[in-house]
Amino acid sequence: MRVPLQHTLGKDEVRRRLHARSHEIGDAIPGGVAEVTTSWPDEDCMALDINAMGNVVRAQVLIEETQVVFEIDLPPALSFVEPIIAGAIRKKGQKLLESK
Prior knowledge:
The protein is α+β, with helices and mostly antiparallel strands and 100 residues long. It is 27% helix and 38% strand. It has a 5-stranded antiparallel beta sheet. The termini are far apart.
């Protein structure tokens, strides 16, 4: 699943905001009961391991000049929640990028 979010911040500012607010990502997972571990394989990619409801889902956030792309590897058994997750990413992802 791939969910792009447009921005006008520039890559440096997006990186800064995601670093500062990555601890809030677990709050954006529907159900509110997720454990999220983040790492930065490179400066434009934040990797996430999301443990929720007994499932581990791998995701990444790719930082581009005019958009941030959330890529989530949903197992087939969870494909029915894809629209819910995409909606949450659009709503909460935009909040992660907002100034705070």
